[in-house]
Amino acid sequence: MWLFKSVFAPDQLPVIAGEGVYLRVPQSSDFQAWRDLRAESRTFLTPWEPVWPSDDLTRGAYRRRMRRYARDMMADEAYPLFLFRSHDHALVGGLTLSNIRRGVCQAASLGYWMGERYAGQGYMSAGVAAMLPLAYDVLHLRRIEAACMTHNTPSIRLLERLGFVREGYARQYLCINGIWEDHLLFARLKGDCPKPHTARGSIDGFQDDLEDGLGLQRRSGTERVRP
């Protein structure tokens, strides 16, 4: 099953190709690159994230993270992905589809982070654009939601450029860096269109791997996961 290879072994993994980037499920061998990028970007990231645990960058905490990723994917609750630059395979950031809701909802929440030295170069825009076919065509979601702080202008522009629509304003929505912050609420439906010239990812070969590995079953239009 490729899921467990992705999290625990260094085997060749299926990837989602984007414009100058690719996405894949995290694995244990990514620890050093992930730790180094997060450590050097800490000052850049902490204003936009929940408070980091004191041991967050340790190997033990990373192992626990990998186990949680595996549980979440097997339960069809969340799908974490690391984002790499294509030409040198450098880890540049990550994104997650979480809070998966099935039944009559078929929705998920999108979150992402970017290493400081790679910010502002279009990598996350390309990564999110590449992820959308996975969300809609493989996971069969209809609605992707995202929330960002009201003064996070780069994130607002990214979402709007990729076809997300601003739907609301939530007061004290999330506790970010120890402060309950207001957020703007965005969503993108399967039929919504991005602005022109937005890159779209390729999931050739990925859909069969995902469905075979996770055992997705179509039942009355709802995707279910068997352990």
Give the helix/strand layout.
Blueprint: H1 2-8, E1 16-17, E2 21-24, H2 31-40, H3 42-45, H4 59-74, E3 79-85, E4 91-101, E5 107-114, H5 123-138, E6 143-149, H6 153-161, E7 165-176, E8 179-189, H7 206-214, E9 216-219, E10 222-225
Parallel strand pairs: 5-6
Antiparallel strand pairs: 1-2, 2-3, 3-4, 4-5, 6-8, 7-8, 9-10
Describe this structure in words.
This protein is 31% helix and 31% strand. The protein is built from seven helices and ten strands. It has helices at residues 2-8, 31-40, 42-45, 59-74, 123-138, 153-161, 206-214, and strands spanning 16-17, 21-24, 79-85, 91-101, 107-114, 143-149, 165-176, 179-189, 216-219, 222-225. A hairpin with a 5-residue loop joins β4 (91-101) and β5. The longest helix has 16 residues, at 59-74.
Report strand order across the widest sheet.
1-2-3-4-5-6-8-7
> What percentage of the residues does DSSP assign to strands (E)?
25-35%
Q: What is the first-to-last residue Cα distance?
A: 11 Å
Inertia-based shape: globular
Helix/strand/pairing category: alpha+beta
Task: Assign a percent range to the helix content.
Answer: 25-40%
Short description:
With 227 residues, this protein is α+β, with helices and mostly antiparallel strands. Helix content is 31%, strand content 31%.
Keywords, please?
alpha+beta; 8-stranded mixed beta sheet; 227 residues; disordered N terminus; two-stranded antiparallel ribbon; disordered C terminus
